[in-house]
Design goal:
Strand order of the largest sheet: 6-10-11-16-15-14-13-12
Strand content: 25-35%
Number of helices: 12
Helix content: 25-40%
Radius of gyration: 27 Å
Largest sheet: 8 strands, mixed
Shape: elongated
Structural class: alpha+beta
């Protein structure tokens, strides 16, 4: 199979030789007797020169091109110290493979902004900007690092159903759908399935997959469809036993981004810092005390709201902790599958992983004892019969286990200091936006 050449591969051995290059026309400059095209490829731009004296028809064709049209250019590689990479392509032929309509709904190369809705309505054009694409190269590096790290720790990647008969957390945040006349839901989380797997011998599993929550939140940190990085580990004695896997995976992701995405970080003007392991652990009650010293009072037993998370994050950052765990949340605010502490059942073996004042992950040690689990389901006002498929796994021998659910989109947002979580998602969906 033949491919058009990448301009980034052009060098001294190509001087005076013919080459075929293709890309999007970013700019057209007609100087009377000569026309210059700036053509964009994935790796950057290159200059095409069309001389009127050499070929008037080619010159006229090049001069009338609409920006963002896709072209294929054949010509001779010539040295030109004034252009990118020091080389230009002196055109001998030009084919318009796909003309762009005019006018463009938003600028690509011009330093002119566009409204957020305009950008996302025309996302494919928005993603032609190098700084937008850099985000998704970083995101790809993050996902690869998660996989590579956990693979080395003996984990197995799994893929659980995204249509379910019951929600992992119940409540009003489920998207309901008709499944051949039966009620079904889009998956909030792989929680129930990954716990079921702990009874099979697949005792270390992880998943990177979409999840859905019908939260009517119009904030810079909430969307309805997101990517979740989940892990579950069996044969633990305490919650701390699996913390090294989660913090190790996050550290590996940051380290890989720093080493493998340097040009992207330069383009985005950010420099993520690696955390010092092990990460700081703050019990929930200690977190409340820190908040009180900063004038924020949260009643013991209540969850931390967004403002409290930010204040705590600022306090922790001053001590050099961008990433840290908040542990031992009240049992009353945690799902039915979280194990309460034996000595203080009003608190639980649970945690949140915080990064720069935002929650990245939630998790804890799970309740693996069948009778206790059924009691917890009833205590939360849920019907155990709706969870029969899940409870069955606990009747026939379930080892102690625990794990996490981690928001990939939010992590990329905080890693790159993006103003909105939607910037970290190719085609973001929220309460208002369903297409594209």
């Amino acid at each position: 199979m033949a491919f058009f050449r990448a301009f980034s591969t052009i060098g001294p051995p190509d001087h005076g030789k013919e080459a075929s290059l293709a890309g999007w026309v970013e700019d057209v400059r007609n100087l009377g007797g000569i026309a210059f095209l700036i053509v964009r490829q994935r790796g950057g731009t290159f200059q095409v020169t069309a001389k009127k004296k050499a070929d008037g028809a080619l010159f006229n064709q090049a001069s009338k091109l609409v920006r963002e049209s896709v072209v294929a250019v054949r010509g001779t590689v010539q040295l030109n110290p004034q252009v990118r990479n020091g080389w230009e392509l002196v055109a001998t032929s030009l084919d318009v493979l796909s003309p762009a309509a005019a006018p463009l709904p938003l600028p690509i190369a011009d330093k002119v902004g566009a409204e957020v809705d305009t950008r996302f309505d025309n996302r494919v054009l928005d993603l032609r900007k190098p700084e937008r694409r850099a985000i998704f190269h970083v995101r790809s590096v993050v996902a690869a690092a998660f996989r590579s790290y956990l693979d080395r720790q003996g984990f197995v990647e799994v893929h659980t159903p995204k249509l379910a008969g019951a929600g992992a957390e119940g409540g009003a945040t489920l998207f309901e759908t008709n499944y051949f006349g039966r009620k079904a839901f889009l998956s909030q989380s792989p929680q129930l399935y990954k716990q079921m797997l702990m009874s099979t011998g697949l005792d270390r599993v992880y998943e990177l997959a979409p999840a859905f929550r019908a939260e009517p939140s119009d904030t810079v940190r909430h969307v309805t469809e997101f990517t979740s990085f989940d892990g579950e580990v069996a044969w633990i004695e305490r919650m701390e036993d699996f913390f090294p896997f989660l913090e190790g995976a996050v550290d590996a992701a940051i380290e890989h981004v720093r080493t493998e995405a340097k040009s992207d970080l330069e383009l985005l003007q950010v420099e993520p810092r690696r955390p010092k392991l092990p990460l700081k652990r703050i019990p929930y009650t200690e977190g409340l005390e820190i908040l009180r010293t900063h004038g924020r009072r949260i009643r013991d037993g209540d969850d931390l709201d967004t403002e409290s998370e930010k204040i705590l994050g600022q306090a922790m950052a001053k001590d050099g902790h961008e990433l840290y765990f908040i542990t031992e949340y009240p049992s009353g605010i945690k799902p039915f599958y979280v194990m309460p502490k034996a000595e203080e059942p009003e608190y639980s073996h649970s945690f949140d992983l915080e990064y720069k004042g935002d929650e990245m992950a939630s998790g804890g040690q799970r309740e693996h004892r069948y009778d206790h689990l059924v009691a917890k389901i009833k205590e939360k006002g849920l019907n155990p019969e709706n969870f029969e498929f899940y409870l069955k796994a606990f009747r026939y021998g379930m080892p102690p286990h625990g794990g996490w659910g981690f928001g990939v989109d939010r992590f990329v947002q905080k890693l790159l200091d993006l103003p909105n979580i939607r910037e970290a998602i190719l085609f973001p969906h929220d309460r208002i936006r369903l297409v594209p």
